[in-house]
Amino acid sequence: MALSELNATRSVMEMLEDYGPTSQCEPVPQDRATEYVRELARGHYENFSVLSRFVPVGLVDDVAAVYAFCRWADDLGDETGTGEDARARSLELLSWWRGELRGCYETGGHVWHPVFVALRQTIIKHDLPMQVFDDLIRAFEQDQRVCEYETWDELLGYCKLSADPVGRLVLMLSGLRPPDEDVENADVYRMSDSICSALQLTNFWQDVRRDLVERDRVYLPSRETGVDGQMLRDWLNRGNEPEVRLAFIKALRQMVDRTWPMFEAGRELPGLVPGKMGSMVWLFYAGGTSVLRRVERVGCTTLWTRPRLGKAGKAGLLLQAWVMGRRRGLGTGKGERR
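Below the sequence we write its predicted structure tokens.
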């Protein structure tokens, strides 16, 4: 296959024909693999080109490689379609993806896929453990097996796999080793886990309707809220009935109230992450809290209304992050949140 066909504008599912489990491609050269993950991040993540301003130049390609891994894994879990056959197909693809990941860690292992050619260099450069990547795959596998959650603790267990590893990777790319290697970083990692889980939960509360309709998933824990998937499907078209709206608002309000303390527990993290990466961490933190406030402002009615952070709101956050980065660069402190 010609390398020119390695095109980041093609979807992951389209790419499987040439870079999937049954393809017979030669290993992609390192420079082309790096170019691909860069293009993928810029093309599929609208804010990457902006966020890259808050990433040290020497880490931009590493962040892109990690993003590309996550993007592929996420799409392998979500883009096969709906129904049991689609879920089974996703599990097969995710199992293949795990096998490719293991190849990155094997001495002399055969690494050919562009994402893993790029990622392997990042893994070696920053001594990244396989477990953080494998946890992400486990989360996407769980999505195929679990469509509803009963308890808050079960939901947090999912966040531990789906969200916390991303924050841990950011910390490791920033030079902060995990607590099992440097006990002084225990609080930093605890804060990161708290923020990342809160970000994941905020996404759930923002996207109740989308998850229900497009993915047949319900993240409101039924035992705590008294609400299950069948009730939500019934309520979806009854949003003009006051008793229905009040019941949903009450359920979601409980979850929002339990999410705020998790953000607060990680409030000091951006000032503890060295260099420009602290500004990026603050940007995600501030973005998450802004979205959660918007969930509140629409009255916790996200079964019918999806709140968004508008252009003005995004611009304001980016400006604040830029100012923080400038202050860090001028040595005026740790870049504490204002």
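The mean pLDDT is 88.
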